[in-house]
């Protein structure tokens, strides 16, 4: 039951992320939530989640450095 709930929540958030890619919205947040839900049961999703977290950390540090000037 828990797996069905997490996978359906992951699918829903991925679909919302795809919709928000087309219309303005927080698509990246929905993709990360979807990957988080999938990462409990699928190791490939866990690797993509770690990759997205590292990329987001680097891009935020870059923007902080540029905006601090």
Outline:
This protein is mainly alpha-helical. The protein is 87% helix and 0% strand.
Structural class from helices and strands?
Answer: mainly alpha
What count of domains describes the coordinates? Answer: 1
Relative helix content: over 70%
H and E order: HHH
Mean pLDDT: 92
Q: Which outline best applies? A: flat
What's the total count of β strands?
0
Radius of gyration: 14 Å
The N- and C-terminal alpha carbons lie at a distance of 51 Å
**Largest sheet, strands/sense/barrel:** none
Proportion of beta-strand residues: under 5%
Number of helices: 3
Low-confidence stretches: none
Verbal overview:
87% of the residues lie in helices and 0% in strands. It has helices at residues 2-22, 27-39, 43-68. Keywords: Membrane, Plasmid, Transmembrane, Transmembrane helix. The chain crosses the membrane at residues 27-44.
Give the arrangement of secondary structure elements:
Elements: H1 2-22, H2 27-39, H3 43-68
Helix pairs in contact: 1-2, 2-3
List keywords for this structure.
mainly alpha; 69 residues; flat
């Amino acid at each position: 039951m828990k797996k069905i709930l997490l996978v359906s929540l992951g699918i829903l958030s991925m679909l919302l992320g795809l919709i928000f890619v087309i219309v303005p919205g927080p698509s990246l947040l929905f993709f990360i939530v979807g990957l988080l839900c999938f990462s409990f049961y699928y190791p490939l999703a866990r690797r993509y989640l770690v990759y997205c977290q590292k990329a987001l950390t680097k891009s935020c540090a870059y923007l902080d450095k540029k905006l601090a000037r």
